[in-house]
Amino acid sequence: MADYIPGADAEFHAWKQSFVAVGNANLVGLGLIAGDLTAVTTGHGM
Asked: Could you tell me which of 25, 22, 17 has the C-alpha nearest to residue 41?
């Protein structure tokens, strides 16, 4: 299986922004709360 998380910094940053946007837009459907994404966004330039 190919790695779906990009390795290059710029590509990873764009992927992470998209991941967080989709996660925030679909919290209920994914069974998440806003705090679940805090670890992804805190301290990582978002």
From this structure: 17
Q: Give residue-wise pLDDT tens across range 7-37.
A: 888 999 899 999 999 999 999 999 999 899 8
In whole angstroms, what is the distance from residue 6 CA to residue 11 CA?
6
Query: How far are the Cα atoms of 20, 31, 33, 39 from residue 43, in angstroms, in the given order?
Result: 14, 24, 19, 8
2: left (phi over 0), alpha (psi -120 to 50) or beta: beta
**CA of residue 22 relative to chain centroid, distance:** 8
Q: Helix (H, G, I), strand (E, B), or coil: what is residue 31?
A: coil
